Amino acid sequence: AAGSDLFEQITRLPEYYPTRTEIGILDGRGPEIAALLPAGAALVEFGSGSTVKLRRLLRHLDKLAAYVPVDVSGEFLRDQAETLSADFPHLRVEPVVADFTRDFDLPESLAGLPRAGFFPGSTIGNFEPDEAEALLARFGRILGSGAHMIVGVDLVKDAATLETAYDDAAGVTAAFNLNLLTRINRELAGRFDLDAFVHRAVFNPDASRIEMHLVARDAQDVAVGSDTFAFAAGETIHTESSYKYTVESFRALAERAGWRWIQVWTDADGLFSVHALRLD
Questions:
Q1: What is the DSSP letter of 92?
Q2: Cα torsion at 77, 78, 81, 86 (round to 10°)?
Q3: Beta strand extents in 142-233 (DSSP E only)
Q4: Separation between Cα atoms, residue 85 and residue 108, nearest integer Å
Q5: Which residue numbers in the chain have pLDDT < 50?
Q6: In sequence order, what are the residues at sequence separation of 6 or more whose Cβ sits closer than 8 angstroms to the Cβ of residue 14?
Q7: Is the pTM of this model over 0.85?
Q8: What is the pLDDT of residues 11-20, one digit of tens each?
């Protein structure tokens, strides 16, 4: 829950361009995007988080049969679903608490409905490319033949823009990263001193990814359960990668995963992209 809240704060930071840029695309191209989705469909959002982006599409999806938010954070998911139901009383909302990186079943009540997937925020970039391909293939199995997908994908750009977006002046991204150590301490009997590590974000051009690290300030030994890990000063824990794609490289990845690429929309500055896919 703390991680979900911190991430929502990140999406509102001035340095973090992906959220506002993607929202701009959804606002400006929403009618075109919605027109590609079948009437009477069930829209499944993988890793739904807040409903900010979904609401941008809902205004154009007047014939949507059901919305199915899927998220691993059950409490946060239920709160968001209740708020959305109150704001859209005629929309059927059926939340599913699940880890979307593993197979899960959709509600039986969706049987017979055409299905569409929604995966905004460039979450696809948090996976190694082969894992991203496998994930898109899994979404296809969950949604079934004939399904559509709308996927947000962050684009390759200059290192300064990327590194600033992942290392904000207010330190919210640092708190998000350090929350991993808080969870290890709480859930795995860890003994990390959070003050002994600092957040670092760096763009790796060879791998086309932003890397988030937690850097040990000094040499130290840290116990986690019955194990002990030795850190040299400056040694890092590589906590997250966020891969950046070109339009062409993401299209190739989606097609390897079994999807047919239909269309892409980008902002005027070429910072971000929204792709439409179909599973034949």
A1: E
A2: -150
A3: 148-154, 197-204, 209-216, 220-224, 227-231
A4: 20
A5: none
A6: 168
A7: yes
A8: 999 999 999 9
